[in-house]
Amino acid sequence: QVQLVESGGGLVQAGGSLRLSCAASGRAFSMKTMGWFRQAPGKEREFVARISWNTGSTYYADSVKGRFTISRDNAENTVYLQMNSLEPEDTAVYYCAAARRVYGATFPTEYDYWGQGTQVTVSS
Q: Torsions phi, psi of 75, nearest 5?
Protein backbone atom coordinates (compact mmCIF):
# COMPACT_ATOMS: atom_id res chain seq x y z
CA GLN A 1 0.00 0.00 0.00
CA VAL A 2 1.06 3.56 -0.73
CA GLN A 3 -0.36 6.69 0.82
CA LEU A 4 -0.10 10.02 -0.97
CA VAL A 5 -0.68 13.41 0.61
CA GLU A 6 -0.67 16.58 -1.48
CA SER A 7 -0.06 20.09 -0.20
CA GLY A 8 0.78 23.54 -1.50
CA GLY A 9 -2.38 24.53 -3.29
CA GLY A 10 -3.99 27.93 -2.89
CA LEU A 11 -5.15 31.11 -4.54
CA VAL A 12 -2.75 32.99 -6.81
CA GLN A 13 -3.02 35.73 -9.40
CA ALA A 14 -2.44 35.04 -13.06
CA GLY A 15 1.27 35.02 -13.81
CA GLY A 16 2.11 33.82 -10.32
CA SER A 17 3.68 30.60 -9.10
CA LEU A 18 2.88 27.74 -6.76
CA ARG A 19 4.74 24.60 -5.76
CA LEU A 20 2.77 21.47 -4.99
CA SER A 21 4.20 18.65 -2.90
CA CYS A 22 3.21 15.00 -2.77
CA ALA A 23 4.50 13.08 0.24
CA ALA A 24 4.49 9.34 -0.33
CA SER A 25 4.61 6.69 2.38
CA GLY A 26 4.40 2.94 2.45
CA ARG A 27 5.99 1.09 -0.47
CA ALA A 28 6.54 4.26 -2.46
CA PHE A 29 10.02 3.08 -3.50
CA SER A 30 8.46 0.28 -5.55
CA MET A 31 6.39 2.60 -7.73
CA LYS A 32 7.32 2.87 -11.40
CA THR A 33 5.84 6.27 -12.19
CA MET A 34 4.59 9.24 -10.22
CA GLY A 35 2.18 11.61 -11.87
CA TRP A 36 0.19 14.77 -11.43
CA PHE A 37 -3.34 15.13 -12.76
CA ARG A 38 -5.93 17.87 -12.46
CA GLN A 39 -9.66 18.11 -12.64
CA ALA A 40 -11.65 21.29 -13.19
CA PRO A 41 -15.38 21.51 -12.39
CA GLY A 42 -17.45 19.74 -15.02
CA LYS A 43 -14.38 18.35 -16.78
CA GLU A 44 -12.64 15.01 -16.87
CA ARG A 45 -9.45 14.39 -14.95
CA GLU A 46 -6.51 15.24 -17.20
CA PHE A 47 -2.84 14.35 -17.20
CA VAL A 48 -0.40 17.12 -16.27
CA ALA A 49 3.06 15.59 -15.79
CA ARG A 50 4.85 12.40 -14.79
CA ILE A 51 8.27 11.34 -13.52
CA SER A 52 10.07 8.03 -13.14
CA TRP A 53 11.10 7.26 -9.56
CA ASN A 54 14.27 5.51 -10.76
CA THR A 55 15.53 7.52 -13.71
CA GLY A 56 13.93 10.89 -13.11
CA SER A 57 12.77 11.08 -16.70
CA THR A 58 9.84 13.44 -17.16
CA TYR A 59 6.97 14.08 -19.54
CA TYR A 60 4.44 16.91 -19.71
CA ALA A 61 1.10 17.70 -21.20
CA ASP A 62 1.40 20.25 -24.00
CA SER A 63 -0.76 22.69 -22.03
CA VAL A 64 1.83 23.02 -19.24
CA LYS A 65 5.09 22.38 -21.08
CA GLY A 66 7.58 25.14 -20.39
CA ARG A 67 5.61 26.43 -17.41
CA PHE A 68 5.44 23.45 -15.02
CA THR A 69 8.31 21.32 -13.73
CA ILE A 70 7.95 17.95 -12.01
CA SER A 71 10.74 16.68 -9.78
CA ARG A 72 11.30 14.17 -7.01
CA ASP A 73 13.36 13.78 -3.88
CA ASN A 74 13.96 10.07 -3.44
CA ALA A 75 15.37 10.46 0.05
CA GLU A 76 12.26 12.31 1.19
CA ASN A 77 9.83 10.20 -0.88
CA THR A 78 8.35 13.41 -2.18
CA VAL A 79 7.32 14.55 -5.64
CA TYR A 80 6.97 18.21 -6.52
CA LEU A 81 5.17 20.21 -9.17
CA GLN A 82 6.55 23.70 -9.66
CA MET A 83 3.97 25.77 -11.49
CA ASN A 84 5.01 29.09 -13.02
CA SER A 85 3.21 31.60 -15.23
CA LEU A 86 -0.10 30.32 -13.96
CA GLU A 87 -3.22 31.04 -15.99
CA PRO A 88 -6.90 31.02 -14.97
CA GLU A 89 -7.25 27.89 -17.12
CA ASP A 90 -4.97 26.09 -14.66
CA THR A 91 -7.63 26.34 -11.96
CA ALA A 92 -8.47 22.82 -10.80
CA VAL A 93 -8.05 20.26 -8.07
CA TYR A 94 -4.59 18.76 -8.51
CA TYR A 95 -4.01 15.10 -7.70
CA CYS A 96 -0.84 13.15 -7.14
CA ALA A 97 -0.84 9.51 -8.28
CA ALA A 98 1.44 6.47 -8.24
CA ALA A 99 1.65 3.63 -10.75
CA ARG A 100 2.87 0.23 -9.53
CA ARG A 101 3.41 -1.49 -12.85
CA VAL A 102 3.45 0.97 -15.70
CA TYR A 103 6.50 2.93 -16.83
CA GLY A 104 5.52 6.12 -18.55
CA ALA A 105 1.93 6.01 -17.30
CA THR A 106 -0.22 8.78 -18.74
CA PHE A 107 -3.82 7.64 -18.34
CA PRO A 108 -5.62 7.72 -14.98
CA THR A 109 -6.47 4.02 -15.29
CA GLU A 110 -2.75 3.19 -15.28
CA TYR A 111 -2.34 4.59 -11.77
CA ASP A 112 -3.04 2.58 -8.66
CA TYR A 113 -2.88 5.08 -5.82
CA TRP A 114 -4.22 8.62 -5.53
CA GLY A 115 -3.97 11.46 -3.08
CA GLN A 116 -6.94 13.44 -1.85
CA GLY A 117 -6.21 16.44 -4.06
CA THR A 118 -5.31 20.05 -3.46
CA GLN A 119 -7.18 23.06 -4.87
CA VAL A 120 -5.37 25.52 -7.11
CA THR A 121 -7.25 28.68 -8.03
CA VAL A 122 -5.78 31.24 -10.42
CA SER A 123 -7.53 34.61 -10.56
CA SER A 124 -7.42 36.85 -13.61
A: -65, -35
Q: Write the DSSP string, the chain.
A: -EEEEEE--EEEETT--EEEEEEEEESGGG-SEEEEEEE-TTS--EEEEEEETTT--EEE-TTTTTTEEEEEETTTTEEEEEE-S--GGG-EEEEEEEESS-TT--SGGG--EE---EEEEEE-
66 CB-contact burial (10 Å; exposed 0-12 / middle 13-18 / buried 19+) = exposed
pLDDT tens digits for 20-36?
A: 999 999 877 788 999 99
Q: Is the sign of the CA dihedral 41, 38, 62, 112 positive or negative?
A: negative
